[in-house]
Amino acid sequence: MLAVLCLIFCCSLSSTSATFVHPGLLHTSSDLARVRRHVLANKAPWNGSWVLLSQHMRNSNYVPRNTSFINCGTVAAGRILDTWSSSLQLINGTSDKYLESGIYGYAFAQSAELLRSYNGWTGLQQFQKMLLEVFYPMNKAFLDHHNGQDVYRYWANWDLCNTASMMTIGVLTDNQTMFDYAYNGEGMGT
Ligand SMILES: *[C@@H]1O[C@H](CO)[C@@H](O)[C@H](O)[C@H]1NC(C)=O
Ligand SMILES: *[C@@H]1O[C@H](CO)[C@@H](O)[C@H](O)[C@H]1NC(C)=O
Ligand SMILES: *[C@@H]1O[C@H](CO)[C@@H](O)[C@H](O)[C@H]1NC(C)=O
Ligand SMILES: *[C@@H]1O[C@H](CO)[C@@H](O)[C@H](O)[C@H]1NC(C)=O
């Protein structure tokens, strides 16, 4: 499992200093530059995917559930993140809440890491706050206590998604301690 995470996070781990390189999660700057080069050169499959994405963004009537906070002038993707980060207070429910905290914490941190260098988005701090207050404590609670169960009670994916969430939140918030804690955690999926 560490090997898989190493592949995912190789960029962050290859650095010997205590600072993360951004963007440094699933996509690095050179990844984005490569995609851009291929789109501009009209090469498949990048060209077709780009057409689909552009059409989707233009035609989409997707509306975030809560629009109490709209950061005027920001892009659609930033608005979705801002709407969530201005609203979400708690993930509650059955033990499945720990799958949500892992899966969505990870996906949210990845999304924000991609947008962070875009100067049309000003919501980074608020988004970091949501991840630190709502998701990170649940990731840590699950990795430390496994919902009050034996460490082997839950399948590996439960540890894995909470580990991945904590690692990505560590990168997004430039917290090496948090990243290392997740990286060195115990459990089936670590
Ligand atoms: C993408 O590029 C390929 C050649 O690499 C071309 O055959 C195809 O028509 C292009 N698709 C679009 C949507 O432009
Ligand atoms: C969503 O927005 C509505 C309308 O502003 C508000 O009443 C509600 O509290 C918001 N939900 C959350 C979870 O913040
Ligand atoms: C969370 O869910 C539990 C179990 O369904 C419930 O007892 C508790 O009141 C909920 N807490 C909040 C703050 O909604
Ligand atoms: C980093 O995260 C740890 C928890 O893992 C926390 O105790 C510490 O205060 C955080 N550091 C900063 C600079 O926020």
Can you walk me through this structure?
The protein folds into 2 domains: 24-55, no CATH class; 63-190, no CATH class. It contains 8 helices and no strands. It has helices at 2-14, 29-40, 46-59, 76-85, 97-115, 124-145, 156-172, 176-183. Helix 6 (124-145) packs antiparallel against helix 7 and helix 7 packs antiparallel against helix 8. Residues 1-16 have low confidence and may be disordered. Residues 175, 177-178, 181 line the site of one 2-acetamido-2-deoxy-beta-D-glucopyranose. Residues 1-18 form the signal peptide.
Structural class: mainly alpha
- The tally of structural domains comes to 2
DSSP summary, beta strand count: 0
The portion of residues assigned to helices is 55-70%
Order of helices and strands: HHHHHHHH
First-last Cα distance: 6 Å
List low-pLDDT spans: 1-16
User: What oligomeric state is this?
Assistant: single chain
Give the overall pLDDT as a whole number: 85
Total of DSSP H or I helical runs spanning 4+ residues: 8
Described by the principal axes of the CA atoms, the overall outline is globular
User: Mind telling me the C-alpha Rg?
Assistant: 18 Å
DSSP strand (E) fraction? Answer: under 5%
InterPro entries: Chondroitin_lyas
Protein name: Alginate lyase domain-containing protein
Keywords: Signal
Signal peptide: 1-18
